[in-house]
Amino acid sequence: MSLRVDLYEGARIAVLSLGLNRLRTLLTTLGIGIGVATLLCILGIVQGLNASFATQLSALGSSTLWVSKFPWVITGDKWWIYRNRKDFTLDDVQAIREQSRFAAAVAPEIGRGGSVSYGDRGLSRVRIIGSTGDYLTVSGFEIQSGRAITDADSEYRKNVVVIGADLVDTLFPHSDPIGAVIRLRDLPFEVVGTLVRRGKFLGESQDTSVIIPFRTFIADYGKRRGFEIGVAVENTDLLNQAEDELIGIIRRSRGTPPEAESDFEVNRSEQLAKTYQQLTAALYGVAIGVGGITLLVGGFGIMNIMLVSVRERTREIGVRRALGARRRTVIVQFLLEAVAVAAVGGAIGTIVGLAGAKLVASITPLAAAVDPSTVLFGVGFSSLVGLLFGIWPAARAAALDPVESLRWE
Amino acid sequence: MLIEMRDIERVYHLGRSEDVHALRGVSFGVERGEWVAIVGQSGSGKSTLMNIVGCLDTPTAGHYLLNGRDVAQLSDDDLSDIRNREIGFVFQTFQLLPRESALNNVELPLVYRGVKARERRQRAKAALRQVGLGDRMRHLPTELSGGQRQRVAVARALVSEPSLLLADEPTGNLDSATGEEIMRLFEQLHRQGHTLCLVTHEPRLAARCPRAIRLRDGCIVADGPGREVAFADLPDAARAAAPVTAPQDNAPRSAATRCP
């Protein structure tokens, strides 16, 4: 008898016995189901985070190098070392503008928090950014209506502002913001433009920013904090050369001796991505650990119920053997039954897991998304667990002596 | 010759030193078309012999030629295939799969032979009609009477057109009327040319077979026309009627390992 026939007949018997032992199948399969659901739920959340992170990262501008006193990712307790480094000056900005062959746009960025009001409406914890005309290119922000801040605005220290989408919603629910005068930390600014909505990043709105001219910022709020310099590079393939060139320009501009280390950092979104990946790798590890243990427990549940099933059906095995079933036929029959039980669990777990991820997505700021391959993984992996834990019971069934099993009561 | 047994021995090892000689050198032959009864009390070795004839078990020593092929030394897979092709089993307890319809039960040997579904169905239906169950094909065993169940079992044994129909106490779980029904069915199959082997402890049934072999303590003590062999051993039958006290039954068994 061919293996194909074994498989076909085995599958038919498996489906039949699942139908007959519905409650038992369901209970047995619960372990596997919970394992798969846990896995899918966590993986769904991580995948959702990944997706929104990737989107946000591209909005940050993957082609922008950010020159700063601080590295974006600080390890250890070196914060004070970075804090005490020399601040940049507009001469550094000018040097980059003049000397860089790779830079497409260069803009300083200085920022602080504050509250904004218009009439009796207000919004606190707004991020106030001071910059120049190239800021949109460097930051990835886009203009929704009106115009952007220009170099001239900065030169003449105009009190003009471009506002984020959340501010438009809050301060101007019924009117056109362009031309209105709002108060930023109690100073009046004329709204000249609005920004395209960016959405949330790790649960935090990206649309509570306002952009004002750089020199206006310095004049009104001081420059104690220092600033970063964003450099947009035209060709992303040349980011490394651009970074080397940038380091050279700033060292020359500051007169750093050749043997001394650079006292500034060149950041790019890739670094954030790397740190983020390390973080999610840990999450994946936890998910796989928890899910793995649950699947293991579920696997033993399946093994147990299959051993019971073999015992219960000892006579059936005897009859099948008497009628000409080979050992392999019996093995395939019980293996397929174990796989079927596990696959049912996998399917239930998949549905619960997806529902769980959706629930997390709807009640928390975390975006959870599951791609189709994860579903395949859930069902496929639980089937594999069924197969592995079905081997021993199936082998025991096949090893039964036909004479003894026919006599079994 | 369909079955040729030469000096068949079967020893069961129980524990370290205790060996039970269930068969101690049994030789006989069965021609195609014969109807042979194997009779004996429980413990006589007839079940062991039946298991060996049915290729469910292999002898410890001796040769068993089925259709001229020595099956004593075959692998487990080969034995499975021989059971599938050469032997049709009918058991005392019917041994139908409880969750499968009569038709599916009858189809089973053909499934294991790899017969295509359409042909399988046709042959199974024909076999069920042959035993008079053409109108019960879709019934589950639990929906059938004892006699009907045994007829399903007979149909299942017949469907693969085996060389030998091996029936182990086929009327043991039936009332006498239904038992008679099954015996009539066997007589009919015998007339049609099937080779039958009936294992029983009832002299009354053995007497109806053209030939009977009587076993006692693992040895053949009589082999001849059913009517003679069935009732020849009256003291034996008397002992069977009065159970419990039969110490002499066990005494000689462990003494000799070979038949006289």
Structure in words:
The complex is a heterodimer of chains A (about 400) and B (about 260). With about 400 residues, chain A is an alpha+beta fold. Helix content of chain A is about 60%, strand content about 20%. Chain A has helices at about 5-20, 20-60, 80-85, 90-100, 135-140, 150-155, 165-170, 215-220, 240-255, 270-310, 315-320, 325-365, 370-400, 400-405; strands spanning about 65-70, 105-120, 120-130, 145, 160-165, 180-185, 185-195, 200, 205, 210-215, 230-235, 265-270. In chain A, the strands form two sheets. A six-stranded mixed beta barrel of chain A has the order 2-3-10-5-7-6. In chain A, a hairpin with a 2-residue loop joins strand 6 (about 180-185) and strand 7. In chain A, helix 2 (about 20-60) runs antiparallel to helix 13 (about 370-400). Chain A starts with a helix and ends with a helix. The model of chain A has no long low-confidence stretch (mean pLDDT about 85). In chain B, helix 3 runs parallel beside helix 5. Chain B contains ten helices and ten strands. The interface of A and B includes residues 315, 322, 327 and 329 of A.
Question: What is the rounded Rg of chain B?
Answer: 19 Å
Overall tally of structural domains of chain A:
2
Give the fraction of residues assigned to helices of chain A.
Answer: 55-70%
Number of helices of chain A: 14
pLDDT averaged over residues of chain A: 87
Notable characteristics:
heterodimer; A: 6-stranded mixed barrel; two-stranded antiparallel sheet; 12 strands; 18% strand; elongated; B: 260 residues; alpha/beta; Rossmann fold; 6-stranded mixed β-sheet; 4-stranded antiparallel β-sheet; 25% strand
